[in-house]
């Protein structure tokens, strides 16, 4: 889908046909009742963007388990991917948005989107390995640039925390659609 006419086709598909949640408690209640696990959410106000340092290496036991699974052939599945399977470098930071919803409820949700990971690694490369400079470039994109748009989050719950966490939601995608001007609505 192209971005012509102020993202008209994307807006039609993702914003105009989906229920847009503005209150986080409704989503938390829906997750606890097992009635919703994916949602489009519009924060009322972004109050922060943070990163936290994580472990730099994958858990060796989990990597061994994954490698063992890739070595087990499946009778009816395509097997070519097993020959090229590689463990990717672990993202050494987690990224989160802090925000308020329409009720003024303050929250912090982690961004588990491949795009922020790819952006970080590309910025590290552009900054010749300087992680501090790369983190600043990620912040510029996710704060300075994205907050000038009509920002929405694609949210999902994680199976591990779905019924036990006070808030099982994470950001699985960030949709930074341009603001729609009144003249374009006519």
Describe this structure in words.
The chain has helices at residues 4-15, 24-32, 60-71, 80-84, 114-126, 131-145, 182-185; strands spanning 20-21, 38-41, 45-53, 93-100, 106-111, 150-157, 169-177. The protein is 38% helix and 25% strand. The chain has a four-stranded mixed β-sheet with strand order 1-2-6-7. A three-stranded antiparallel β-sheet has the order 3-4-5, covered by helices on one side. Helix 5 (114-126) packs across helix 6. It has 186 residues and is α+β, with helices and mostly antiparallel strands. The chain has a single domain, classed as Beta Barrel (OB fold (Dihydrolipoamide Acetyltransferase, E2P)).
Radius of gyration: 19 Å
Strand composition percent: 15-25%
**Class from secondary-structure proportions:** alpha+beta
Low-confidence parts, pLDDT < 50 over ≥5 residues?
Answer: none
Strand order of the largest sheet: 1-2-6-7
Distance between the ends: 22 Å
Shape: globular
Helix and strand run: HEHEEHHEEHHEEH
CATH class descriptor: Mainly Beta
Report the major sheet: 4 strands, mixed
Determine the CATH topology: OB fold (Dihydrolipoamide Acetyltransferase, E2P)
> What is the CATH architecture term?
Beta Barrel
Mean pLDDT: 86
Q: What is the share of helical residues?
A: 25-40%
Total helical elements: 7
Topology (SSEs and partners):
Layout: H1 4-15, E1 20-21, H2 24-32, E2 38-41, E3 45-53, H3 60-71, H4 80-84, E4 93-100, E5 106-111, H5 114-126, H6 131-145, E6 150-157, E7 169-177, H7 182-185
Parallel strand pairs: 1-2
Antiparallel strand pairs: 2-6, 3-4, 4-5, 6-7
Helix pairs in contact: 5-6
